[in-house]
Amino acid sequence: MKCESSKHYWALWVIVAAVLAVMGAVSAQETAKPSSYAPVVLKENFATVMARMKAAKPGVMKRQMDLLNERYDLSNRPARGVAMSRGKAIQEGVRVKLPKGMTWEKLAAMSPGEIRKKDLFPAGFLPLPHPNHWEGGMVFPRYHIEEIKKQVGRDLTRFDLDYDLPDHFLPEYPPPIYLTTRPDLGDVSQGKVVTTDNYYELFNGILNPKQLEGLRLLVTPFPQQQFNQTDDRRSARPSLGVSCFDCHVNGHTNAATHLVGDIRPQEFRHRIDTPSLRGVNIQRLFGSQRALKTIEDFTEFEQRAAYFDGDPVIATKKGVNILERGSQVHFMAEFQALLDFPPAPKLGIDGKLDPKKATASEMRGQDLFFGKAGCASCHPAPYYTDHLMHNLKVERFFKPRMINGRMASADGPIKTFPLRGIKDSPPYLHDGRLLTLEDTVEFFNLVLELKLSKQEKEDLVAFMRQL
């Protein structure tokens, strides 16, 4: 009887253990599912995290630089006779590498389906991953890190990774500032990077008090995901944070990169090439995919969400800066709306070339832009944007694949960026995957199946350099 009772209890425990094991497996499965949220409570102390990431950094950067060298010709080859507004050389030539044995002419003669089937879509036309896509976050070019450290003592160095694209493919630094309200002054930056140290002396007497306060807020650092005062950061020391103008330097761009905060899971998040703020007064959409309707919306969104990967829980932990819409956001937006495009001496008041000033190649390029190439259907004069979103459906040309932590698949609709002043804003496309205007023309020639000749491509580039 006692033996039977023992057997009964043993069987019962076996059943309970099996149930618990199943529950544990289900729980583990539930835990393993992707989450929209970042972990709030860290399981490693800061010193351990920093040591681990520092040790991994050489491998992280080698992996990214190997990818870039595999995709592109990264040599420094400046174009002759053309430069950015303050004189920095523009890089020339197609830098995207073709598959072995392929030419651009052969590739353009093939259908999207054939290119996809034979896996011939150039690697440089695929989405570009973040320098460390698994980690993400704001990353700044070295020259900006050094300038900010010199001026105000803030250190924007990350201990886990560095910026990846070579300096010669980036916008000039510092970029000039042109104001819609004072075109007579030309570049009002006086060749300086505008910060909390000098904004007042540079702009007092040029801006009204509201605009001056808006500019102050745009150069003031606030906590951000990687740069904050908690132990969940990627700077060696606690940081005051970043400012709007750490990416949009002087109201333009230094090509600082980040990941969009709107998408989950991590591998589907798009790399961001920081867009210029020049000409926001004529734009009607803000954010490459967000379709925010006003510059006020964009300004507030950046502080509340984009700074913290769209995660308000983490934002609260790290010190989110809640801007007051009726005054602070309004003042910041009012200053941004004054930022003008750079002068374009060859353009008339209609935004098109003056035949008396343009070369024959530039005039042919303009004819192509408004004709055979169809560029003007999305980029009409005078500012060369239609204020809409368009889906290029580039996924027609390749099969989805993982690239350094980035799932290359459908990008979806992207807003039409203005082309005025485009020579000052490399690299190109929303994620910076196209290093030169020549790369950009080849990309659209293939994706839109335009079948342009070599001379027609050169003429289009010549035209866009004058915008």
What descriptive keywords fit this protein?
two-stranded antiparallel ribbon, mainly alpha, 467 residues, single chain, disordered N terminus, globular
Tell me the total number of β-strands: 8
How far is it from the N-terminal to the C-terminal residue, by CA? 97 Å
Q: Tally the helices.
A: 13
Structural category is: mainly alpha
Mean pLDDT: 93
Helix and strand element order: HHEEHHHHHEEHHHHEEEEHH
Helical fraction equals 25-40%
From the alpha carbons, calculate the radius of gyration and give it in angstroms.
Answer: 25 Å
Low-confidence stretches: 1-9, 11-31
Task: Report what the structure shows.
It is a single chain. The protein is mainly alpha-helical and 467 residues long. The protein has a domain at 55-70 and 130-336. It has 13 helices and 8 strands. The chain has helices at residues 2-32, 46-71, 104-108, 112-117, 142-152, 199-203, 209-218, 295-304, 312-318, 325-336, 360-370, 437-447, 454-464, and strands at 78-83, 89-91, 257-259, 271-273, 389-390, 401-403, 406-408, 414-415. A two-stranded antiparallel sheet has the order 1-2. Strands 3-4 form a two-stranded antiparallel sheet. β6 (401-403) and β7 form a beta hairpin. The longest helix has 31 residues, at 2-32. The model is unreliable at 1-9 and 11-31 (pLDDT under 50).
